[in-house]
Amino acid sequence: MRVVVTGAAGFIGSHLVLALVAAGHDVLAVDAPARNASPAAVAGNIAVLARAGVPLTECDLATDDLGPLADAEVVLHLAGRPGVRASWGPGQADAERDNVTATGRLLAACARSRPRFVLASSSSVYGEAARPSAEHDGLDPRSPYATSKVEAERLVQRAVAEGMPAVVLRYFSVYGPRQRPDMAFHRFIEAALDGSPAPLYGDGGQRRSFTFVGDVVDATIRAAHAPLPAGTVLNVGHPVTAGLHEALDRIGALLGTPSPTVPKDPAPGDVTCTWADTGRTGRLLGWTARTGLDDGLARQIAWHRERVRV
Ligand SMILES: NC(=O)c1ccc[n+]([C@@H]2O[C@H](COP(=O)([O-])OP(=O)(O)OC[C@H]3O[C@@H](n4cnc5c(N)ncnc54)[C@H](O)[C@@H]3O)[C@@H](O)[C@H]2O)c1
Question: Is 201 labeled as catalytic in the residue annotation?
Answer without folding.
Answer: no
